[in-house]
Write a structure and sequence with these properties.
five-stranded antiparallel beta sheet, CRDL1 protein, alpha+beta, about 130 residues
Length: about 130
Amino acid sequence: EDVPSQTFDNKDYFCGKETFPVYESIFTEEGETIRKIAIEIEKPPQIEIHVWTIRKGILHHLYVEKLSKREFEGLPYFKLITRTTLSQWKIFSEGEAQISQMCESRVCRTELEDLVKVLYLEKSEKGHC
């Protein structure tokens, strides 16, 4: 059988691991970019949002906020970008902590882009889980 393509519903599993929706919001004003990466977690049911403030390619501020699903649904600009596993989210969070230290004084555009790519799951070939 073919491996089903990655779909965006709550019953989606990747190699037997449950996946969670990941959202992104990016907006720019006055030379500053605010990029938000959010994951919807079921236990406890909440949205974890990682907020990056980037000025001239330098990560100036990073913080995490947690919202209820109802609060999140009222926020504009977020779009679903992928689904990921909790283990990939952990790698993302740990990488984010390292980058925040590295990028306080230098441009880190590629590092930030590469970090977001960690969340995208590779489609596995049949039998390679």
